[in-house]
Structures are given as C-alpha cells and as structure tokens.
Design brief:
The protein is mainly α and 188 residues long. It is built from eight helices and four strands. It is extended and about 65 Å long. It starts with 12 loop residues before the first helix and ends with a helix.
C-alpha cells in the first residue's frame, strides 16, 4: 500500500473522533484494514481517489467460481426452498388454528401478550426487565400470568429450564413465538 499525505476530509468531525479515541493517528485506517485483511486471502482490498473523494472496495476473489457453482446447484436448492416454504405455511396454519383466540384479540388491539413477545424478539430478559421495558411499575400478577401462558403455549422459554425460580432466570422467544409474530404481522 502506497504512502500518501493524510488530510482530514471532514475538518469538523475528524478532530472529534481523535479526541474520543476512535482514531489513533491520521492516515492509519486503510493501512490497518489492509493488515487485518491479510488473514483473509480470498478478499482483496482496492482503493482509489476519484476527484475529492475516494473509494474503498473489498473484492471477493473467488466470486465467479462461486456464482457458477451456485448456478449448478441452483435447481436443487430451489426445490429444497419450495419444500421449506410449504412446511412454513403448514406450521403457520396450524399455529393460526391453535391460537385463533389470541390472534383475534391481538388484531383488535395489542395486549400484554403480544407486547411481551415483541420485547423478547429484541432481546431475552427477566420479568423485571420486561416490566421496565413495557413501562410497568412492577412485575404485576397480570405479567406473571401472561408469561406463564406464553410458556405453556411454547411461544417463549426459560433460559434456565430446570430451575424456574432461579434468580438469573430470563425468557426468550421460541421459533414458534417468532412464527406467531410473523403471522400477526401478516394478518394486520
């Protein structure tokens, strides 16, 4: 990589980044990237100056061979996708039938039921974290009943399944819960 005079292109934000410690010295970034990319021989770093700007390109060297291989395997892959899509549709129909009452209620107005699922889609959490994220003052009986119902319906699960009352117990969305949220979004 050739050496050049380093000039800050954005005279306002560059000193701020320097003071924040995001950059350690001027003109070092591309050199550091090039050094890191030495561990990835299948990726080539190319950069060029165009007028007052510059372009950085990361070129995958075996891309053409990979595209040809995908084309050969494409038909087999497409057949597998159609089977997967049929399975997903079947799963959604079964879930729709099983949770019809909850789905209808959620379509009328979002309740704690879907709000808990939506929050757990973002990140797993404890009951206290759920209450806080849902703007509840405390972990209410209603939240406890909703979490229990979601567990019974296999829409969420405990992170520590063998110890339900563990102090570090958290809850996460199951695949079935993700499917329910997708179904809810599709129905709206």
């Amino acid at each position: 990589m050739e050496s050049r005079q380093s000039d800050a292109r954005n005279k306002i934000i560059a000193p701020v980044f320097k003071r924040l410690g995001v950059i350690d010295q001027w003109g070092n970034g591309l050199k550091l990237i090039a050094e890191e990319l030495e561990e990835y021989p299948q990726i080539d770093l190319r950069w060029k100056e165009v007028g007052l700007s510059f372009q950085v390109q990361f070129v995958k060297l075996d891309y053409v061979a990979e595209v040809e291989l995908r084309a050969e395997l494409g038909q087999e892959f497409d057949k597998g996708l159609s089977v997967d899509n049929q399975n997903i549709e079947k799963e959604q129909q079964e879930l729709r039938a099983e949770l019809r009452a909850e789905l209808r209620a959620e379509l009328k107005k979002a309740t704690l039921y879907s709000n808990v699922l939506t929050q757990l889609k973002v990140d797993e959490g404890t009951k206290q974290e759920l209450a806080s994220a849902l703007s509840l003052d405390t972990v209410s009986g209603h939240l406890n009943r909703t979490v229990s119902k979601l567990i019974d319906q296999n829409l969420i699960e405990r992170t520590i399944p063998n110890t339900p009352n563990h102090p570090a117990q958290k809850f996460r969305l199951t695949e079935r819960g993700k499917t329910f949220l997708e179904l809810l979004a599709k129905e709206k």
